[in-house]
Amino acid sequence: MSKNTMDKFSPSVHMSKIDVVIPYSADNMLCDNNGQRMWWAFLASSMVTFFGGLFIILLWRTLKYLWTVCCHCKAKKKEVHRITTGEHIKRVDKGDSAASEVGWMTSVKDWAGVMISAQTLTGRVLVVLVFALSIGALVIYFIDSSDPIEFCKHFYSNYTLQIDMAFNIFFLLYFGLRFIAANDKLWFWLEVNSVVDFFTVPPVFVSVYLNRSWLGLRFLRALRLIQFSEILQFLNILKTSNSIKLVNLCSIFISTWLTAAGFIHLVENSGDPWENFQNSQALSYWECVYLLMVTMSTVGYGDVYAKTTLGRLFMVFFILGGLAMFASYVPEIIELIGNRKKYGGSYSAVNGRKHIVVCGHITLESVSNFLKDFLHKDRDDVNVEIVFLHNISPNLELEALFKRHFTQVEFYQGSVLNPHDLARVKIESADACLILANKYCADPDAEDASNIMRVISIKNYHPKIRIITQMLQYHNKAHLLNIPSWNWKEGDDAICLAELKLGFIAQSCLAQGLSTMLANLFSMRSFIKIEEDTWQKYYLEGVSNEMYTEYLSSAFVGLSFPVICELCYVKLKLLLIAIEYKSDQRESSTLINPGNHVKMQEGTLGFFIASDAKEVKRALFYCKACHDDISDPKRIKKCGCKKSKTAAHKKMRLACCFGCGRSAWGCCCMPVNVHCNLDSPRRDIPLSAVSVNECSATLRAFEEDRHSALSPKKKQRNGGMRNSPNSSPKIMRHDPLFIPGSEQIESMDENVKKYDSTGMFHWCPSRDIEKVILTRSEAAMTVLSGHVVVCIFGDVKSALIGLRNFVMPLRASNFHYHELKHIVFVGSLEYLKREWETLHNFPKVSILPGTPLSRADLRAVNINLCDMCVILSANQNNIDDASLQDKECILASLNIKSMLFDDSIRVLQANSQGFTPPGMDRSSPENSPVHGLVRQTSVTTGANIPIITELAPLAKQGKKLPVISFSQDKSSGTSIQMITELVNDSNVQFLDQDDDDDPDTELYLTQPFACGTAFAVSVLDSLMSATYFNDNILTLIRTLVTGGATPELEGLLAEENALKGGYSTPQTLANRDRCRVAQLALYDGPFADLGDGGCYGDLFCKALKTYNMLCFGIYRLRDAHLNAQSQCTKRYVITNPPYAFELVPSDLIFCLMQFDHNAGQSRTSLSHSSHSSHSSSKKSSSVHSIPTTNRTSRIKNRDSRDKQKKDMVYR
Q1: What does pTM read for this prediction?
Q2: Which of 79, 899, 947, 1119 has the fewest CB atoms nearer than 10 Å to its CB?
Q3: Which residues contact 36 (CB under 8 A, 6 or more apart)?
Q4: Cβ(754)–Cβ(748) under 8 Å?
Q5: DSSP 3-state assignment of 868?
């Protein structure tokens, strides 16, 4: 075929040398006969628009400037004329009125500004719509980029051109609004968005006119991506600075990348104009994107490269800018992405599953202790998810702990002080929020302030959320009362560690080992079985017991508490220690071991000691008809006849709920289990911390309603003397010796204030600290005995530990005045002066300025004759090294144990180790009031000798006698009862040198803790979980530990920071009638027959029936099971022994005893005349031999004493 023939049928049209061949297909129409390209027309439309508008703006500005100059000259001449003629005054008013009028141009400009701004809803919608349409136009460009750069197609057949035309008409209108609203038209004309419009909008209209499309500079629409962060801010999606910065960097980088790729695509597919477009190459747009990326990253594979001169020239300049941008933007983007919080998401609540939020002091130790107790297997399946919120990301160890519990634990990084973070963890739907405190911080007040701020933030965000927070200092609890939405009646609780810690230690002064027993009861411990017959076997059997609550079966309705308690122990193998009593006014009170006067009601909540939550269900399922003949308690299940009773009980509860005005879900009548109920309880009805008779008037009315069931003796409960078997046992003690701080107020007139305004504590008028200070010589002459020595380390800079919380349980009003143990503080006077403001209203308190490390000071206070020595420190948290935090307490403990004392004549109180129940025949030698355990002491030879013996012949005369013991050796300080406070659990290994405790052994498994001689605040961590599952537990613990502190009393202390005295009224005196913890000796007395090989269950029943005493544990000698003649004097705790547990004579029994009205009536046996022994009389008289003038000369004595301290050495 000839060349002409081929040209005739060629799909292309040959043009002259300066023309270009335009390809076309069957669908494309021929634009003109020559096939000439019209790219210059499209470009010219944009250039004319841009430069034409720029010229008009500059021309307008020039003319306006000239006009202003001319008018200014004329105005000056007119002003001179007005001033000379005096017409300017009249024209000023007219000018002001004209200036105050707003022209229509200004109104239109303001309207246009409002339309394009994002301050209004219309403006935001318009801005977002423009951005979306710009992205749409960019997408159309991506589609058209697959076609030739310039091709002919009719407007009506090109759908993408039609859509692009519609978009650009909208852009033109928006451009007009922007132009009208612009204050500076010149700068507006030169803006990036304006330039984009110049080179994209006019070519579209040219395309319609010429019926051809030119891809041209439409890629400039990619520059609109720079505004992406602004759009997201308008939509309230981006809120943090890091997220805004990240989106800005990404949008600038991507828009620059896409725009540069569009330019390369244009010039490479078109060719150089001076080469007649013959050097073009076919590159797709995405190949150009790839080329720009490898160029920016300086990789340059060489597979794709620019051939045209324009493309290569552009690449030269782009490498300079693009490389700089790539090197700066990309690392910053990666850094921002890498610095994004790993735990910065949001919690997604699961239907049917509750979650709690835990915040505050989140460390590996605090979290592991919390999870170990909260997720303990004895709670069955806890269907609660734990969400931790902390502003610091967890370390590797803590992260590994979270991963091990990933099914129930989630961690989010944030702060509860930030409402956004609270929203992330869904605090509004959380079942509770728990705030952990740093127990080892150097500044407890600052830590409490931080937790209070957390409470304020959470309550401000969601006032109805239940909060359980740890507090370090008791006086800081008052600040929580200032929060309007804080409501302890709705479940909000503050667990004050100082209050409970010192309360536990104070109770150990009354019954040593009680702190260990109570700490084990509210902590979840797994049962550890030991086959060997060692003391650890019996101790660990008791450790597996915990405290639970469950509603009592209807079979118990109408029975008295002692009867139910005995039935539960014997039949159900459960120990019932308290109940929640509801009065007719729907108020609830926690009654600990109430007497026969309390009859059980329907739906009564009981507090049990048991080893498993399933065991406590027996109290709910028990049916007398079905289970009366069952001997195995495991067979007690829900019986068939209980269904009808259950239905009736449900109706009763619904009626109760209706009366309460609450739903059945929120009413307090619904059963709640302390440790295993999967639904978190809510306290809708307040629970009082008073144990027995806070609502005594209600109970008396209850007695009158049931008078037919009460004996005449029981009706005399509120009378004067009570001699019935139901009377409470009492402790017989000597009169307190007259020493500073031990005033005799028992014989005061009834109109004198003896108790605080609530009637819960003994009270005396405030005294100056100088009146209670003892010099060393005065203390040595006083012959202190049966007292409590508190060795405290502290100075002026030490944080206050709140000694009031230690003294209050020892001054509870359920003790008679003569039963109060004298308290002697040995420590820095500067520190004790700071504490004295809260102690000056308590009787029988003395201070010996000195140091607990001085043996002279310890001998002066007769530490060998004290009932308990307590070692505390206020300096423990000021040391960074954890192993040295307890150095002072450990040194003081070892110092006391290494002391030797002359044992030639020791006057001791016979019943310091136990008490004699009333109702005994005191004339008989076997029931002598001088009874109790033979107190053992270690001597230098290694043998143990008794230091308490009975004087039976003198006891027959009915006199209260001191007991003396003679020894040729010296007794050791190891026989002194002592309890030491520790901060670091591992330091317990240094207290006892004869134990084999491993440093990694848990605290509760160590010998000092099992013996009750060591206590650490870490054991109180378990109270957070126990309080969440049932806040009644915290009420019960406070009742047992604090001696009767109530929320009302906390409110009074918040007002005045001191106890306020009150006159004795029937209402306040009734508050004295409440139980207290004591230890019962089996060596002699009415239970001596059971002490030698008897069963614990028989003792339990006898004590309960005869004296209404509730036994709940044993304090046994460590080597009692060895039957050795020489036994160690150390004792350990056995909680809730089984019925058949064999007793030994040396056992001390933990029991809850009733208040004894008789103990305060007769004082004849308590006078000094009863001290018939020569040694006792001699030492008593030495007290009165202290001259009164010594009080006035104390300052001189104290100066000389301080001078002697510098030369003091250990003796």
Answers
A1: 0.69
A2: 79
A3: 15, 19, 20, 22
A4: yes
A5: strand
